[in-house]
Amino acid sequence: MPMWAQWLGFWITLISGIISAFVLYQAFQLKSIFLLKAKLPKLHENLRIYRERFNMLLANEPKNFQKMSVIQAEIISVLDQAKPYLSKPDANKIDKVHYDLSKKIVNEKSSWDFYQSLASLEKHVASSSEDLKWNS
Amino acid sequence: MFNENEKFNLIIRFQQLTLSGEITWKVANPHPAIVKMKDEYISTCYYCSFRESDIYLYVERYSYYNGEFDNWLFSERTVLTILENDFISWENYTDQGLLNDLLRIVMNSTANIGKFF
After folding, report:
1. What mean pLDDT do residues A106-127 have?
2. Positive or negative, the Cα torsion across A70, A76, A79, A83?
3. Which residue of chain A comes nearest to B10, CA vs CA?
4. Is the Cβ–Cβ distance between A61 and A105 less than 8 Å?
């Protein structure tokens, strides 16, 4: 085989390799966006429901810390499941509030603190979900 | 200037004050400062007075333009407003989750549904 044909083959292989890598990268990005688009609104909805349930407990059974702790455990489990699919800023936000949300609920102050952290996280997730809807 | 946490704290404070009975809400007509120059329809309105301020919590229906489909849509939101000397000094309609929780607490505290039993 002449030398020029070998070089041509080399360049064609190299360029097609680069194009394939680019296409694969884009597909991965698209998959991430689709996953995010599916996960974020679901997480927002879950947090909204948990916040409402928790608020009803605060209003009707303000000293039932055991029931509140059950909701707390469910919320942390939901967050841990959703985290791998979230974007870096959202995952960071969850890491940031994780400590506050994990504090043991032992009195009325800690129950209201938990409620506040939950509402703050819900607002952040709602805003990210809205951004994703408009930017992708 | 209010930061995010203070806004949250204020709504939560009103929830706590309502639950502990330190403030008493009553169904009221919206203050003229709230309805003036507005197209929104106010479906529910509650009033209470706390530390010489008038506080209104109300639900308003409003219309907004949807550019994607070139039409007008209707939505509903809960608003918490503080009035000083008949002027709006502060209002919040962005934290709908907390505001709706406050509205539910206020409704339960004023509804007196026991009379139906």
Report:
1. 91
2. negative
3. A116
4. no
- Nearest CB among A48, A52, A112 relative to B12 is that of A112
Which pLDDT tens digits describe chain B residue by residue (117 residues)? 567 677 888 999 999 999 999 999 999 999 998 887 667 789 999 999 999 899 999 999 988 888 888 999 999 999 999 999 889 999 999 889 999 999 999 999 998 887 888
Residue A90 DSSP code: H
Partner residue facing B12 (CB), from A48, A62, A116: A116
Cβ contact A116–B19 (<8 Å): no
Which contiguous run of DSSP H or E holds residue B90? Answer: strand B87-92
pTM: 0.81
* Distance of alpha carbon A24 from alpha carbon A30, whole angstroms: 10
Beta-carbon contacts of B54 under 8 Å, excluding residues fewer than 6 positions away, are B31, B47, B82, B83, B84
CB contact under 8 A, A59 and B98: no
Query: Cβ contacts of residue B65 below 8 Å, gap of 6+?
Result: B71, B72, B73
Residue B109 exposed, middle or buried by CB count within 10 Å (0-12, 13-18, 19+): middle
Segments making up each domain of chain B, as ranges: 4-112
- Cα distance between the two ends of chain B: 48
CA dist., res. B4 & res. B2, Å (int) = 7
Whether the CA torsion A112, A117, A123, A125 is positive or negative: it is: negative
CA A78 – CA A98 distance, rounded (Å): 12
